[in-house]
Amino acid sequence: ENDYISIIKEFHKISTITIPRSVVLPDHFDVQLHGFADASTFAYDACVYIRCATPTGVFVNLLCSKSRVAPIKTTATIPRLELCANVLLAQLIHSVTSLLHLHFSRTFLWSDSTIALAWLRSPPDKYKLFVANRIAVIQELTRVEDWNHISSASNPADIRSRGATVQQLQDNSLWFYGPTFLTSSFENWPHKQGEPNHHEQLPETKHHEQLPETKHHEQLPET
Q: Which InterPro entries match (predicted)?
């Protein structure tokens, strides 16, 4: 009952949050899309920002976001949920680019999961069905080279994946304007690929059984 009352109170506070209607300034000369994804055991989230460069400076604003409640399953590991968040971001970015009649010079997609990033850079058929299907969707909707690694502290999607009250969101510059490095030059951005040290240690890889060797090998037919 107490949880229900708290949720109702939060709903009433939502009207106190205001978001600017205009996200693209008329005197812009470069517009980029930046998407972020993150997951926790509670939920996974994707959010998209527009980075607008003008003669007077660089402006970044939240464009849209989408969240999903994490499934209550023992098979829902954190890497799997992070991959689901990346799928959600891929779908959201695809919708944005299809609906907005704007020319985006670049699209950057950010995730703090090294395992999920390594997965989506690999052929889907290397992995078990759950992971393989989601890799295929991501690779169909986005370019693999657009995906980058970001720290959890700089990832705005981390805020909603872990849950936040209206008051916590109100004055949260990371949520409304993205990480501060976006307003600086490209040289100051994170440039790590974020891949694990050893690809062979990636989870969900298919296991191929090795056939026992025989002393005499039969000649295979040519056709």
A: Retrotrans_Pao
